[in-house]
């Protein structure tokens, strides 16, 4: 993924509330448009880098179940 895309997405959502971010996330998933996937990836990357190991492990377990 191009680094400029990451920075543009971060700039577009900077300062948004949890509810606003949830709205963006839900909208992107509901639309199902592939061009929105990089944005979801940036959200995941930001969460992952700020999560402790336990949260990461819990997420990976939940993800494995969801992908089964």
UniProtKB/TrEMBL annotation:
Pfam families registered for this protein in UniProt: SSPI (PF14098)
Induction: Expressed only in the forespore compartment of sporulating cells.
Keyword Nucleotidyltransferase: no
Subcellular location, record wording: Spore core
S-adenosyl-L-methionine in keyword set: no
Keyword terms, alphabetized: Sporulation
HAMAP family: SspI (MF_00669)
Family classification: Belongs to the SspI family.
NCBIfam families tied to this protein: SASP_sspI
Protein name: Small, acid-soluble spore protein I
Protein's organism: Viridibacillus soli
Gene name of the record: sspI
């Amino acid at each position: 993924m191009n680094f400029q895309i990451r920075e543009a997405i971060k700039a577009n959502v900077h300062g948004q509330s949890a509810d606003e971010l949830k709205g963006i996330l839900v909208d992107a998933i509901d639309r199902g448009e592939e061009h929105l996937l990089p944005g979801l990836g940036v959200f995941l990357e930001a969460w992952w880098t700020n999560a402790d190991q336990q949260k990461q492990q819990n997420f990976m377990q939940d993800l494995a179940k969801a992908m089964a």
